[in-house]
Amino acid sequence: MSELDRRRPESFFHDRYNVTPALMEQLLGDNLARRVDDADIYLEYRVNEELVLEESVVKKAARHVSQGAGVRAQSGARTGYAHTDDISIDNLTEAARQARAIADRASQSGTLAVGGRRRPHDLYTLVEAPVVTELARKLDLLRRVDAACRAADPRVKQVIVSLASEEVVMLIATASGFTVGDVRPLTRLNVTAIAEDGGKREIGSFGGGGRVPFDFYLEDERWKRFASEAARQAALKLGAVDAPAGAMTVVLGPGWPGILLHEAIGHGLEGDFNRKGVSAFSGRIGQKVASELVTVVDDGTMANRRGSLNVDDEGTPTGRTVLIENGILRGYLQDRLNARLMGMEPTGNGRRESFAHPPLPRMTNTFMLAGQDHPEDILGSVDRGLYAVSFGGGQVDITSGKFVFSASEAYLIENGKITRPVKGATLIGNGPDALTRVSRVGHDLALDEGVGTCGKDGQSVPVGVGLPTIRLDGMTVGGTAV
Amino acid sequence: MTQVNTDLLTSVLRRAAERGATAADGFLVEDTSFSASVRLGQVDTVTHSREQRLSLRVFAGRASAAASTSDLSRASLERVVDEATALARVTAEDPHAGLPDPASLIDHVPELELDDRQAAELTPEEKVEMARRAEAAALAVDPRITNSEGAECFDRRARYAYATSHGFARGYTTSSFGLTVSPVASQNGEMQRDSWYTTARRRRALEDAEAVGRTAAARALRRLGARKVKTTEVPIIFDPDTAASLIRSIAGAASGPSLYRRASFLLERLGSRVASPAVTIVDDGLIEAALGSRPFDGEGLPTRRTAIVREGVLETYLLDTYSARKLGLTSTHHASRDGAGVSVGTTNLMLLPGTDTPEALIRSVQSGLYVTELIGFGVNGVTGDYSRGAVGLWIENGQLAYPVEEVTVAGNLLEMFQRIEGIGNDLVLRDRTAAPTVKIARMVVAGH
Q1: Cβ separation A358–B446 shorter than 8 A
Q2: What is the pTM of this model?
Q3: Which domains does chain B have, with CATH numbers?
Q4: What ranges do the domains of chain A cover?
Q5: Is the ipTM of this structure higher than 0.90?
Q6: B256, B323 contact by CB (below 8 A)
Q7: What is the spatial distance between Cα B19 and Cα A328, in angstroms, rounded to a whole number?
Q8: pLDDT digits (tens, 9 = 90+) for B367-417
Q9: A9-238: CATH number
C-alpha cells in the first residue's frame, strides 16, 4: 500500500481494480439515476494489523486485507443493497441490478437527495500511517508496555498488550453527481493487567489511540501511563468492597464516563428511530429533556479523534450537531435516507462498518460542554454516593429509553470525600429523564482516550465520547450491598 | 454451493512451504446470503451479499503468525503468504505453538445434515412475503401494537474448507434460514418493543411466520405498564433465553485462553463443585441439522459431545490445541476459526433440562422476579461478579403479576450457579446456545 499514492483514493481504485470515478458515475447513470430517489456505489479497501503480547511474548501477529463494493438504491423508504468482495465492473453492474430490483418501482418523491454542500475536511493526514510503521518498533513498544505494567505493581501477574492498526481507503460515487474519497488511519493500544493477591484475582484495563501515527504512543510517554493505569486499576479492585444497590447520588468523572450520553440520549436521537417513531425521543424536538446545565454535541470534525471522519460513509462532510442546548432537545443525527424522508438536512452521520453493510445514522464524537463547577466542589457536595471514573460498556433499549452502563472503577463518596473502591456495578436509567437529574457540571471537560466502539444492527464503528465531571441525583446503582 | 474446493487452500499452503514455513494451515469460508426486511407492510431493505475469506496460519519452527484476505486473486494470495511468513519470522518462539498431531485429524467427515439441499430456492418476492406475513400477524394481535421496527427474512449458504501442510484437506457446506419480527406496543404514552425469531438449518424446520409474529406481539404487550421496584433480595427466575446467556458465561470462563491467562473464575476448579448438583452443561457438536453443529473444529479435529459441568462438577475445560498444550492437557476439539486466527468456541451449548414445569417454578416463588431480557455488559469473567440491567415480570404469590423495567439483577456467577434451586423441563434447542427455565434462590434486584 505504501507504494501507492496515499492521498488519492480515486487513483488507488483505478490502479488496483481499473474502476474509475467516470465508470462508477456511468454505472449509476445507466442503472440507477432517475429511476430511484437516491443511489450510491461505495468502494473500500482495508488493511489491518493486530499484534498481541501475552506472557511477555508475541502471541499473535496477524495481518488482514479486505476489499469490496456496496451498491445501494433507494425509493421512498425502500433500500436495495448488494455487495461483493470482488471489485470489478461486471460485479458492480450485477450488484446495481440486484439493488435496483427492489427499489425500482414508481419513485415516490421523484427527487434526489441533496448532496453535501460543505467541503470534506482534512482531519487526519499523517506523514506515516500506523499500518506501515516498522514492525520492530511496534514489537519493541509492546515489550516496554509489558515491562512497565509489571513494574507498576508487584501483584500484577499477567499482562496482555495489544496494538491494532488499520487503514481504510474508501471512494463513493452518488447519484446526485459527486464522487469523494477518504483515507482513514486508525490505531489503538490496549493494556490488560491481571493482579493476584492471596487467591483473589482482578482485572484492569486501559488504552487509547485515534486517527494518529504510531508516535502518538511515545509522546509524553503515553504508553507508560496506559501501562500503569491498567496495573493500578487491577490492584485497586483487589481491595474493592461490594457496590451498593439502590437509588443514590452518582458523580461521574471526566472523559470516558461520557458513555452515559452515548447510551442515554445519543442512540435515541439517531434519525432512523425517530423517522420510524420508535425512539423514546420521537417528536420531542424543542422540548426540555435535560437540566439547563446540559449542552450536548456530536462533532465528527475534531482532528485525529477516533470518532472523526472527513466525510461520512455516504460522502457527506461531517459536522458539529447540537443535540441538546441548555436542556432543550435541538437535533437528530441524520444519514441521507432519513434526512430525505424527514425533510431535514443530512448531518454527516451516515456510517457503515464496511462495504458489506448499508449505512445507518450513527454517532461520531459525542460529548457534554463544560460547566462552571470545580470537580472537588462537586464531590464535596455529596453526603453519600458513588463516584465512577471508568466504565466497561453500555447498552440502551431505544424504544423504552432504558439504558445501562457498567462501571469498572468506582468509589464510595462519604461526607464529601472519596473513600473505598467498590466492585463493578451497572448503572441503570431512563434516557429522557436521566439528564434532568444533572445538578452540577464541572469545568473539566475531557474526551476519552480513543477506545470506543459502538454496535448497532450488527455493525461496529469507532466512536468517541466526552464529559466534564457531573453530579446526577437519584440514579439507580446495581450493586449487591442492600 | 455443494462442492467444496480445497485446491486453492492447498496451493496457498504449498507457497507458504516454499517461503520457509515449517508448517501451516488454512481455512476458507465462502458464503452467499440474502435478507429482506419489511416495515409496516412495505419493503424496507433488501440485501444480497457474497463474501469469501481465506485465513492462514504459518509456523516458522515454534514461531507463528496469521493473515487473512478477502481478495482471492493470485497476486493478493501470494502477498498474504509472504507477509504471514515474514511476520512469523519476527515473532518469538513459543514451545506450545504448532499444528495438532496429524493422527488426531478427522478421517471421515460425518453427514450432519447441515445443508438443506432439498429446500426450494424462494424468490426475493416470496421472502419479502414471508416477512410481511409475520409482521402482519404481529400487528393484528392487539390494537395496542401500534408500530413496528419491521420483520426480516434471511437465508445464507456457506462452504467451509480446512487444509494443513501435512496434506489434510476436508470441507463441508451449510445452509441457514431465519425470520425475525420486532413489533412496538404503546399505551398512555409508553412505548415498548420486543421481538421473536426462528432460525434453522432446514427451511421446513422454521416456525410458522404468523406464529413468530404473534409471539413477538405478545412479548411486547406484556411489557406495557412496566414499573421499577424497590431494591430487594429475592428469588430470580430466568426464562430460557436469559438462562442461555448464563451458560455462555460459564463456557467463556471454561475456555482455555481465559484459563492460561488466569483470567477466569473457574481457574483451578477442574473436578470440583461449581454449581448445584442439578446442573449439567453439555456441548454437543454432532446433533443433526442443529445450528451449532460442525463435523470438525477449526483445526480439523472431529467434533464430539462434551459434558463441561456434570451434576454440578466441572469436568473439563474447552480447549484448542494451543491452550491445551499450555495447560498440560489435550484439545477438546473446540478450536474456532476467526479472521484473526484460532480461538475457542462452543458448538451446541446446552443446560440439560430438569423435571419441573416452568409454571411450577414460578408457583414456587412468593415474591420475586421473572427475567425476560438482560442488557449491558456487567459480567466480570475474572471474578464472576455479575450486574446487568433486567426486564421482566414481578412474581407475587406464585403468579406473574406486573411488568418490571429499569432494575438490575446482581450477584456472582459462582454463587448463582450454586444457588440454582430448580431447572425447567422446557429445553428447546432453538439456537446455538439453549437452556430451560432456571430458578436461582436469591439475587439482589436494585431499583428505587
Answers
A1: no
A2: 0.94
A3: 7-221 (3.30.2290.10), 232-245+354-446 (no CATH), 247-351 (no CATH)
A4: 9-238, 245-478
A5: yes
A6: yes
A7: 64
A8: 999 999 999 999 999 999 999 999 999 999 999 999 999 999 999 999 999
A9: 3.30.2290.10
